[in-house]
Amino acid sequence: MSNQILLIATSNLNKAKEISEALKDFSLEIKTLKDFCEIKPPEETGKTFFENAYLKAKYYAKKTGLMCLADDSGLEVDILNKAPGIYSSRFAGENATDEENNEKLLELLKGVPLEKRKARFVCVIIVYHPIGKYIKTEGIWEGFIGFKPKGSYGFGYDPIFLVPEYDYQKTAAELSIEEKNKISHRGKALAKLKEVFPEFLKSIK
């Protein structure tokens, strides 16, 4: 068992890249679920972002014997009663693509004026060590849903999420990883993680 290896519980290499970039100051060997294809994913039965992140982090830490970082994140749209929420990645179906999820959301918001398209990204991060210790951080990014996809960076709902930091003139998909990491929900959760991570690493030695 090593506390210098960090398993990021995702097969999404874009997400893994964002997280790795944010944690580059720590001397960690990063692995992703691409390195453990034989492990079947757990059923995400949680009702909240926290429950799902905790469930994933603990599951993969126990399966691999490695310290594991898992996040659960999603988009909440106020006028849709905070949907898609924890179902963000499968909003348009179990194996839906990002484009299909975006299309479904835009279709549901057809005719809704910008001021009523308020939304936020939420991210909960859990780092779980196999000895049973864990830490939790959270980040929220407020914004509005645009009317059509714009931008080629990012993933998920980034192309339709208008960000306040650029006066709602840019979507999250028009920001570089560096720009996005400074202001996004995951960026905020990772910034908080960097503050508590050194103490956590000491506590598991």
- Topology, number of strands: 7
Number of helices: 5
Through-space gap between termini: 11 Å
Main beta-sheet strand count, sense and barrel state: 7 strands, mixed
Poorly predicted runs of 5 or more residues: none
Quote the beta fraction: 15-25%
Q: Please tell me how large the radius of gyration is.
A: 17 Å
Description:
- The structure is a single chain.
- The model has no long low-confidence stretch (mean pLDDT 94).
- It is built from five helices and seven strands.
- The longest helix has 19 residues, at 185-203.
- The protein starts with a strand and ends with a helix.
- The chain has helices at 13-22, 49-64, 98-108, 177-183, 185-203, and strands spanning 5-8, 29-32, 67-77, 83-84, 118-128, 134-145, 161-162.
- The chain is an alpha/beta fold and 205 residues long.
In short:
It is built from five helices and seven strands.
From the structure above, extract its key features:
globular; 5 helices; 205 residues; 7-stranded mixed beta sheet; alpha/beta; single chain; 31% helix
Ordered list of secondary-structure elements with their pairings:
Blueprint (H helix, E strand, L loop, with lengths): L4 E4 L4 H10 L6 E4 L16 H16 L2 E11 L5 E2 L13 H11 L9 E11 L5 E12 L15 E2 L14 H7 L1 H19 L2
Parallel strand pairs: 1-2, 1-3
Antiparallel strand pairs: 3-4, 3-5, 5-6, 6-7
Helix pairs in contact: 4-5
